Amino acid sequence: MSENSAPPPPSVDALPPLPETPPPAAFAAEPPLLNAPPVVTTPAAEPAAPPAPPALESFRFHGDEREYFRIWIVNTLLTLLTLGIFAAWAKVRKRRYLRGCTELLGHRFDYRADPRRILIGNLVVATLFVAYSVFGRVYPVVAVVTLLLAVVLLPWIVVRSLAFNAHNTTYRAMRFYYHQSLSLAFLTYLAQPLVFVVTLGLYYPAWVRNRTEFVIANHQLGDSFFRFNSKSGPFYSAYFFGGLILVAAGTLGGMLMGLAMSRSGSKVPGLAELLPFLALYGIGFYTARHYAFSRVFNQTWNSTKLDDHRFVASMKPNRWLGMQMVNLGAMIVSCGLLYPWAVIRSTRYALSCLQFQPALPIEKISRLGRAEGSALGETASEFIGLDFGL
Amino acid sequence: MSITFQGTFFNAENLQPHPVAVEAAAGRLWFKIGETETELTLDDVRFSDRLADLPCQLYLPGNRTIETTDHAAIDRLLAAHDRGRVAAVIHWLETRARFAAAATLLLVVSVVGLGYFGLPVMARRAALAVPDAIDRQAGNAALTAFNRMLAPSQLSASQRRHVQDLLTALVTKSGFKPPLRLEFRSMGGQFPNAFALPGGILVVSDELVQLASAEELQAVLAHELGHIEQRHSLQGVLRGSAALLFVSTITGDLSTITTFSSTIPFFLLQSGFSREFEEEADARALTLLTAAKIDWVHFAAVLQKLADARPKVGQDFSYLSTHPSTADRIKKIDPNGRAATRANRESAAPAAAKATAAARTTVSRPGPSATKTSAPAIATTDNRKRRNTHFGTAPKPLRQTPPDYPFAMRAAGVNGEVTVGFVVDLNGDVQEPVVIKSSRPEFEAAALAAVAQWKFEPGQQGGNKTMTRLSVPIVFNLNDEVDANASETAKPPFQIVLPEENVPPPKTPEPH
Predict the structure, then answer these.
(1) Cβ of B256 under 8 Å from any chain A Cβ?
(2) Nearest to residue A295, comparing CAs of A311, A276, A318?
């Protein structure tokens, strides 16, 4: 069995590259890992003259909207009925479905995390959260200290969570590996955000680029290293046009509001006048995010290599945007119940835009012994992942 | 019996796939790669849970893996060894379209149910179980935060003492137990208001003291006492945290989307919460006022004053607001519009109003006693008289047996309130008592049993006896209970709320 694909390249843990997620945050929380690094170590092969132009291998996604909806709804219900205990199992099942439906060179990815470890992480985080929010009221010092602690621990949490995810993602039974570099994480998640605050956000695209590199370039598959090689320019371009969309929407909304206010003659905008502005601004923000995401997606994967194997991404911003607009509408109308549907569509399209170009038969990639990640980091980062995507 | 299946073997040393035929028998697994034969006990093999049509993975020691799509064989193998039962059930559920439909429905129902019933109940229990010391500490923390926003009070010492005396009187007469601490703050000449912080701290703004009359102040204080008694601020915090946890658990995998979408249900839950708190505090205020023999009309009046004093915002935000609208609250407290009537009269004849204001202190009898002809209430009586003329007479209570305090509740030191609706028949007996509302189900039986024994002088209409529908809030208060047992008759009668049909039309008499 097994395919007889010619040049087997290693792949990427193409986790659903950010399903419904908007862009940048996704890289931090759930890494579509790409990456590729420095690597002097490339154990690579002899400098043999490369044969003909390497073929492009497509990622295939076998996910089905209905199937995933059923999985999602059943697991969510069980989570609810077990008061959240089952959440860990649900997460593993859902993630395993998405990875297991992703095929490259005739083989599927697999996710084999132990739900019990995620459960422990969940419990710790939930306890801390409750203790924080309740005791923070009683003893404000506790709140401040906890918050400071959380900020300082953030890089550690991110790193642990990336490592946990990588460790539990396999391709052809080979685990991915994330090299945990705490000092770099501090630089990336604490020092650099300060810079973009100081520069009033101008540094943001560069930060996204650096963060992407931090995520990608520390991943390995066996003895092959991911590398990321991109300048900041394309990131600036993506966010510049995204910003333009946002500004345009905000201006339009502001004008509408001004118009309505001058008609009604009120000094302070009332709800009726504020609503169109808020709606336009929200849509503009959503549009800008997804526009920037699709461009960053292309730039990221096109700059990523796994040793000498390359990735080729060709996502069309308009198509992605249109799809996300439909997703947004569907989710609003269905009160979020169509979320799984949106995930499958987005993942299918994103993966259809991604190709792998093996330089050599990937079967050569071999093992490198490593330690394991922990569930605490992974869950904690999902929990607070909300506010650091920015 | 042996089971065989085809699969792909990966050695975890490199990415090379090896087609393999696996044979399983007698708790052992056997396969051959090239010339190498491998035999394992099944106990050393972990099977991936069945999930959709994904290939089944057999995780062997050392990360080696066999992947197979022969689900039938694997299912037989697992069944033979009594493994993977739970996963099989989940898989079975996940593959039924009908179950998915049912699950969707069930999910929606449970989300709503948990969000609106489960969480509040848990938060209440937890809040009431918090030790007093912690509660006090939380109050201090909240007050510190308050001090940063509010200026010190400008009230004179005698004004403060006056308010303190009013509070003491209210607390003493109504038998309110928890320790209290009264604080004054200025809110910049606007916003008459009062706040209940944890730890029994009451913050009253200077503006409120200047705006409200003595009874009105007591009414507002009674409302805040309701918040304090139920530890609403703690409950709010607990509910907020629980709601956030709840929402993130359900939407756990939404990652970034949640920033936006999870705030919506959260917001809805929160606003529903505080609305409920306000209603609860209003209800409690009414029972406290009754116990302290203060006419509810003052409560309605001060709510109106507060609403009028609030800066106007052209738009109606009430559908977004966390407080029930003032009009709704007033309607509940004062369905006959007596406060409005009185306000009209006062504005028409300010001098006369002054005079009545003095008299009012002595009046302050609660609504029900006003039904008795002896009640000297001024604003009240003329209203009631009118009702008697045009709409007949309301039933007059002859015997109001107090309820037995449920033993478990007494032991737990829990107070409560049950509103019982019933019909007074032509003999003056109580028919069809039903629970309309109750703070705790444990009190319902006792309340119903007590009301069933009550005796009335039947209501009259046009000179004939008539059946009348009434509702009565019955308060279970451990402090009250003592005097209730001491003398049945001396006990403040239970407040009787006349139904809408019996109420005079909203037409208020012109004050001219």
Answers:
(1) yes
(2) A318
Q: Which of B156, B168, B203 minimizes the C-alpha distance to B183? A: B203
Q: What would the pLDDT profile of B205-244 be if each residue is shown by its tens digit? A: 888 888 888 888 888 888 888 888 888 888 877 777 777 7
CA B184-B185-B188 angle, 5° bins: 145
Residues in chain B closer than 8 A to A81 (CB atoms): 110
Q: Are strands A309-313 and A304-306 parallel, antiparallel or unpaired?
A: antiparallel
- Interatomic CA distance for residues B290 and B419, integer angstroms: 14
Supply the DSSP symbol for B197: E
Alpha carbon distance B115, B149 (integer Å): 32
Longest dimension (CA), chain A: 78
Residue with tokens 């699950």, as numbered in its chain: B103
Q: Do A270 and B52 touch (CB under 8 A)?
A: no
For residue range A287-342, list pLDDT tens digits in order: 998 999 999 999 999 999 998 899 999 999 999 999 999 998 998 888 888 888 99
Tell which residue, B244, B254, B354, B340, has the closest CA to residue B301: B340
Q: Are strands A174-178 and A169-171 parallel, antiparallel or unpaired?
A: antiparallel
pTM for the structure as a whole: 0.66
Q: Is the ipTM of this complex over 0.85?
A: no
Contact B8 A77 (CB under 8 A): no
Task: Find which of A95, A130, A172, A347 to mutate to test the B interface (most B CBs within 10 Å of its CB).
Answer: A172
Q: Give chain A's radius of gyration (CA, Å).
A: 22
CA dihedral (B142, B144, B148, B153) positive or negative: positive
Chain B partners of A175 at a C-beta cutoff of 8 Å? 63
Q: How far apart are CA B198 and CA B148, in angstroms?
A: 17
Q: How many Cα atoms within 13 Å fall on the side-chain side of residue A268?
A: 7
Report residue A235's pLDDT band, with 50, 70 and 90 as the boundaries.
Answer: very high
Instruction: Tell the burial category of A58 from Cβ atoms under 10 Å away from its Cβ (0-12, 13-18, 19+).
Output: middle
Which one of B99, B138, B253 has the shortest CB-CB distance to A137? B138
Cβ contact A131:B78 at 8 Å: no
